[in-house]
Specification:
mainly alpha
Length: about 750
């Protein structure tokens, strides 16, 4: 073994020498013509090579044992390489070459040696790492897809748990809403009971509440007037002492007073809409005065900012004057309202009180109606029943109000309606209590414990997937990131489980949502890695197809050249000789084999949804079939040569296009998966397929025009070759239509299968 070389490198050096050493036998042509006439010497060299390989196998086994502990990967490669050499019967083939050389059978030795050289090259490639890397690529792609599938399952289960937990949280919210509604209902019932005892009691009717609002407005106005007066005096003092720098601060204060004035003015304006007569008129006058005062305050603020002290003082005085006017108007409104209240009979007061309470009941009834929509039973829930009862109470109260107006405070009809309202409120209370009990039943401890147990199970599964991702053979950055996200998801699931154990579904929801986000991020990382690996796999696939097409192209060019040579001899001699007919049979067989090789590639392309590229190669295979038939009929003429040229042109187009696609994919090789979202990209992008389709259509169009021009110039009927060309073009046009439809269907399927990314709550 070469000293100073690593084990694998040393073995590869020996294999390379064997490949080089056997090239002299493989260098013979197909006719069996010898490169080296000394068969005996070749046989001896062949035997030496066989012994070298035999010794090499032993060395590979020994080396594998020695480096097992420190270099397990290289040991594995050596064992696999030794196994491959055995499976390919390399030693037996080399022995057969030696025997053939001894007997002088150069052609047989040449055939066998080509196989041995090919097998040794594959062995060398294996040791270099091509096949091993390809296997690793396939294994990792499979592993990543499996992990993505598992994460999707975890995500789906976590989403279901999140939904269930949210349901529990919603129940808690509904219970609180019911409790709040019950408090409002109790307050309403208490007020209604008070009105039954004293229908015309003060403070319950709209006028009493309006008077209270006007008193509050008057108090606010007095405060505003006091502050405006103080600000005016401060401005006067600052101006007298020449403190102009103080103006900015005074401007800000004046601006704030203007905002307070504006708010008070809006309140007065709104109040005027809810009153009548002199009360409304007084409030309108007060609102107008307040509006003027606000305008003056804003103007004074601007003047102070501009250091215009004297004008600002005058404007402040205007504001104070308007505030005085507003106070007078407000006092008039209060006086008018007081007079109005004195004139009211007890019946009118009772009616007003009852009508006001009816509005509150109606509002509560509507609120309960909205609450019932969030209940699982909807319109059949007890909350909906409570809503109907409360709104019924509102109507009874309103009826009582009307009866008080007509019959006075002692109206028996009104008292009867009041009693009915009390009964309806009691029905509403009972319905709410029943609904609350139902909601409480949903919050049994067993349900929360069940959710906690399910969350714990999911955490364990998540940890298992995280461990599997961590133990991946290829530690890509995406896998490392995915592993971290999965660990975080596990921690958040643990937090959710603890929150559920404490009967805190709201907190559990937050942890579950974070876990969902972690799972989604882990899935995205692995989908990005999957896209990278898929890109590498496709790159390898394209390379293999290109290499195979190049081989096919080389053989086709050879057939084309021989066709031209044989046709020239036939034209010269008038017919083919026996040797030339044998050559034609060989060419026919070779052409048929090429057709089959193309069909294999067609199948591979169509499996990858590359319908147009596959269709082009189908055309090539069809032309090859026609050429094989023509050669079998000893037809080497113009039409045969035309088809052969078409085959070469189409193959060259495919090879060039495949090379372009490889360059694009190589650009993505380092990180092309980013943002892929796990969506598998086609082997041949739709744009490239469309370009190829357009090129085919254009070619058919041009050739059709050529035939048409030729027929038009001669004015004759199409000859045999032209008929064949017309039929061939018609067949090609049908193929293009078929490919277009397949491509359209493929694009539709891709559109329908586009993944939807649900949010955490979905």
């Amino acid at each position: 073994m070469a000293r100073g070389l690593k084990p694998l490198a040393a073995v590869m050096a020996v294999v390379f020498c064997l490949v080089f050493g056997l090239s002299w036998v493989a260098a013979q042509d197909d006719s069996g013509k010898k490169v080296d006439p000394d068969y005996e010497r070749l046989a001896r060299r062949q035997e030496e090579a066989r012994k070298q390989l035999e010794q090499l196998e032993g060395v590979m086994q020994e080396l594998a044992k020695k480096i097992e502990d420190k270099q397990p990967d290289e040991a594995k490669k050596l064992r696999e390489a030794w196994k491959t050499a055995r499976e390919k019967l390399l030693l037996e083939d080399m022995k057969a070459i030696r025997e053939a050389l001894k007997k002088g059978e150069g052609f047989l030795a040449h055939s066998k040696s080509k196989k041995v050289v090919k097998d040794l090259m594959e062995l060398l490639n294996y040791l270099v790492g091509k096949q091993y890397d390809r296997k690793n690529l396939t294994d990792e792609l499979k592993e990543v897809k499996d992990n993505i599938r598992k994460i999707k399952e975890l995500e789906e289960k976590q989403r279901d748990l999140h939904k269930e937990t949210k349901g529990v949280s919603d129940v808690k919210k509904r219970i609180k809403d019911i409790e709040d509604a019950m408090k409002e209902l109790d307050n309403l019932t208490q007020k209604q009971r008070g009105l039954q005892e004293n229908p015309s009691r003060e403070g319950q009717d709209a006028d009493s509440r309006m008077m209270e609002a006007l008193n509050q407005a008057a108090k606010a106005l007095e405060g505003l007037m006091k502050e405006q007066k103080n600000l005016h005096n401060t401005t006067k003092d600052a101006l007298a002492k020449g403190r102009h720098a103080q103006m900015d601060r005074l401007s800000d204060k004046q601006k704030n007073l203007g905002q307070s004035s504006s708010e008070l003015q809006k309140n007065m304006q709104n109040a005027s809409k809810n009153t009548k007569g002199n009360t409304s008129k007084g409030l309108q006058n007060a609102s107008k005065a307040m509006q003027k005062a606000t305008g003056a305050m804003d103007k004074a603020s601007s003047q102070l900012a501009e250091r215009k002290g004297q004008p600002a003082q005058r404007t402040q005085q205007e504001a104070m004057k308007e505030l005085e006017n507003a106070k007078k108007a407000l006092d008039q409104a209060k006086e008018a309202l007081a007079q109005q209240m004195k004139k009211k009979t007890p019946g009118e007061k009772a009616a007003s009180n009852q009508e006001q309470l009816a509005k509150q009941a109606q509002k509560l009834g509507q609120k309960l109606g909205q609450m019932s929509k969030s209940s699982p039973q909807g319109a059949q829930s007890k909350t909906a029943q409570a809503s109907k009862s409360t709104q019924g109470a509102s109507r009874s109260m309103s009826k009582a109000g009307q009866q008080f107006k007509k019959g006075g405070q002692q109206s028996q009809g009104a008292k009867s309606s009041q009693q009915k309202a009390m009964e309806q409120l009691a029905d509403a209370k009972k319905a709410l209590e029943e609904q609350k009990q139902k909601e409480l039943e949903r919050l049994k401890r067993e349900q929360m414990e069940k959710l906690a147990r399910e969350q714990e199970k999911l955490k364990k599964k998540t940890d298992q997937v995280a461990k599997k991702v961590e133990e991946s053979q290829q530690k890509s950055p995406q896998q490392q990131s995915a592993s971290r996200q999965l660990r975080r998801a596990g921690q958040n699931m643990k937090g959710a489980k603890q929150q559920l154990g404490k009967q805190q579904p709201g907190g559990a929801q937050q942890d579950q949502q974070k876990a969902l986000e972690n799972l989604q991020q882990a899935k995205k990382e692995l989908e990005d890695r999957e896209a990278e690996l898929e890109n590498l796999r496709q790159l390898e696939e394209l390379l293999q197809i290109e290499e195979e097409l190049k081989k096919v192209l080389a053989i086709q060019k050879d057939i084309n050249g021989k066709t031209i040579e044989l046709n020239a001899k036939k034209l010269e001699e008038g017919k083919f000789s026996r040797v030339e007919r044998i050559e034609l049979r060989k060419m026919t067989e070779a052409q048929t084999k090429l057709k089959k090789r193309c069909q294999v590639i067609v199948k591979k392309l169509e499996e990858e949804k590359a319908y147009v590229y596959g269709g082009v190669l189908r055309n090539v295979a069809s032309d090859m079939s026609d050429v094989a038939e023509l050669l079998s009929l000893e037809d080497t003429g113009k039409y045969t040569q035309l088809l052969e040229r078409e085959i070469v042109a189409q193959l060259e187009d495919l090879v060039k296009s495949l090379q372009k696609e490889q360059k694009k994919k190589k650009k993505k090789k380092g990180g092309g998966g980013k943002g892929g979202g796990g969506k598998k990209q086609p082997l041949i992008p739709p744009v490239a397929e469309l370009k190829m389709l357009r090129k085919m259509e254009s070619s058919i169009h041009e050739k059709t025009k050529e035939v048409h021009r030729a027929l038009k110039q001669t004015g004759e009927k199409p000859n045999l070759i032209q008929k064949k060309m017309i039929n061939r073009l018609a067949h090609r046009q049908g193929r293009v239509t078929e490919m277009t439809e397949k491509m359209r269907q493929g694009l539709l399927e891709q559109q329908q299968q586009r993944p939807q990314r649900p949010g955490p709550g979905r």
